[in-house]
């Protein structure tokens, strides 16, 4: 078992005060949900959020995931990986070992410390010849996978084919021979016939155990077997995916800019846990007032939209508003994307003060190099954010966030 606690500070060291610790939480055994109370702190704000392992628990690895302030209690099924150093869910892609960085890359024992074992490999075809030693097999040479750990049970997936029935098994060792303990083997898997997907269970191991030797053995001698896409966790691979090249994506149609309108797009840099973000973009007229779409029906959603866009002489005044179905969330971060060749930001006014975290100025206008709105016409971005650590933002289900004034070019 191991004890953990959390600390909140006004800012990172040395400007830490005010600060406070939570109580310790004792973690022991398989993955489960834990909670700890965060006491009320009045008007104090905190921008440093730390996790500590108790001093008496040095050298004990602990898996901690889905650390969320407020919201629903997370489940281990929704947590993704459960490793303590190396990947135990290295899935996702189903490419061969040459292209999937998470797949095992096999070499005969004879290519390493087990010189002269006699195991044979030709591409993805493996054989345990009658002339090979009794301990001959194949070792993973993808060092990026190590160290592996299995605090929760998992699955090893692969594709295989053989003209004759043949049996495989996998073994995980602490380190290559002779420092092999702790170690364990999977159950055997019988391969027979044309290519298909196979899976074998990986039993859970002590949270303190790690493995840096990952081996494959063929039980029967002199029977070639083709094995590929050996991946721990992830999606079960298919032979079609493993053996075919993906279809090339069609070339995008060239974008043409309408000189009478200009895009104004809204994306999220962060939003409340358990909520989706809806940025309601709008094509703004370069010379007239606009009527943009509103937030629409909301369900567990934070929406930002253009509530007003009016011309004032040669300038356009744009008001951004917020709508949600829960007035007690933890905040929001937004990006505002526009085309600086058609409109130039000249003022930022009426910024919502409630729990403001980052209030931008004109000097914060930046080049839109990351293209989060997936629109090459917008070349400029402005960020803004609000943070309410204890979930009281913004206090109502609708608010005006900010007013922007642009010179129309």
Number of helices: 1
Report how far the terminal alpha carbons are from each other.
64 Å
Low-confidence stretches: 78-98, 110-115
Tell me the strand percentage band.
Answer: 35-45%
Helix content: under 10%
Return the structural class.
Answer: mainly beta
Structural overview:
- With 409 residues, the chain is mainly β.
- Helices cover 1% and strands 41% of the residues.
- It contains one helix and 26 strands.
- Strands 5, 6, 7, 8, 9, 10, 11, 12 and 13 form a nine-stranded antiparallel β-sheet that branches.
- Strand 17 and strand 18 (315-324) form a beta hairpin.
- The chain is extended and about 90 Å long.
- Residues 78-98 and 110-115 have low confidence and may be disordered.
Based on the model shown, name its key terms.
nine-stranded antiparallel beta sheet; mainly beta; 26 strands; extended; 1 helix; 409 residues
Write the layout of secondary structure elements.
Blueprint: E1 2-9, E2 19-21, E3 25-27, E4 48-53, E5 106-108, E6 120-122, E7 125-127, E8 138-140, E9 154-173, E10 183-185, E11 189-202, E12 213-218, E13 225-232, H1 239-243, E14 261-271, E15 276-280, E16 282-285, E17 301-312, E18 315-324, E19 328-329, E20 331-338, E21 343-349, E22 356-358, E23 366-367, E24 380-387, E25 393-394, E26 398-408
Parallel strand pairs: 15-17
Antiparallel strand pairs: 1-2, 1-3, 1-4, 5-8, 6-7, 7-13, 8-12, 9-10, 9-11, 9-12, 9-13, 14-16, 14-20, 17-18, 18-26, 19-25, 20-24, 21-26, 22-24, 23-24
């Amino acid at each position: 078992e191991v004890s953990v606690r959390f600390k909140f500070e006004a800012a990172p060291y040395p400007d830490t005060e005010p600060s406070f610790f939570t109580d310790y939480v004792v973690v022991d055994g398989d993955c489960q949900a834990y909670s700890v109370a965060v006491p009320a702190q009045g008007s104090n704000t905190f921008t440093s959020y730390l996790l500590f392992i108790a001093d008496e628990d040095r050298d004990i690895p602990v898996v901690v995931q889905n650390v969320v302030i407020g919201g629903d209690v997370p489940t281990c099924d929704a947590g993704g990986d459960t490793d303590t150093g190396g990947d135990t869910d290295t899935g996702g892609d189903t490419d061969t070992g040459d292209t999937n960085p998470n797949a095992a890359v096999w070499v005969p024992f004879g290519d390493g410390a087990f010189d002269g074992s006699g195991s044979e490999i030709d591409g993805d075809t493996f054989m345990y010849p009658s002339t090979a030693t009794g301990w001959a097999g194949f070792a993973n040479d993808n060092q990026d996978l190590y160290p592996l750990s299995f605090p929760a049970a998992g699955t090893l997936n692969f594709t295989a084919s053989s003209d004759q029935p043949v049996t495989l098994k996998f073994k995980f060792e602490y380190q290559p021979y002779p420092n092999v303990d702790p170690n364990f083997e999977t159950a055997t898997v019988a391969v027979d016939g044309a290519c298909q997907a196979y899976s074998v269970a990986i039993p859970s191991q002590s949270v303190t155990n790690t493995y840096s030797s990952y081996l494959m053995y063929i039980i029967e001698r002199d029977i070639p077997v083709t094995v590929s896409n050996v991946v721990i966790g992830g999606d079960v691979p298919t032979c079609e995916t493993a053996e075919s090249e993906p279809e090339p994506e069609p070339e995008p149609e060239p974008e043409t800019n309408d000189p009478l309108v200009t895009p104004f797009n809204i994306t999220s840099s962060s939003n409340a846990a358990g909520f989706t973000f809806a940025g309601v973009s709008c094509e703004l007229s370069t010379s007239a007032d606009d009527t943009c779409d509103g937030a629409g029906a909301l369900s567990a959603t934070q929406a930002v939209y253009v509530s007003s866009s009016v011309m004032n002489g040669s300038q356009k005044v744009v008001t951004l508003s917020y709508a949600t179905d829960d007035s007690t969330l933890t905040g929001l971060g937004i990006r505002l994307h526009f085309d600086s060749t058609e409109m130039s930001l000249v003022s930022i006014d009426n910024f919502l003060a409630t729990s403001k975290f980052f209030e931008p100025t004109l000097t914060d206008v930046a080049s839109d190099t990351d293209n989060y709105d997936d629109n090459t016409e917008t070349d400029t971005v402005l960020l803004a954010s609000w943070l309410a650590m204890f979930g009281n933002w913004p206090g109502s289900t609708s608010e005006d966030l900010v007013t922007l004034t642009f010179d129309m070019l």
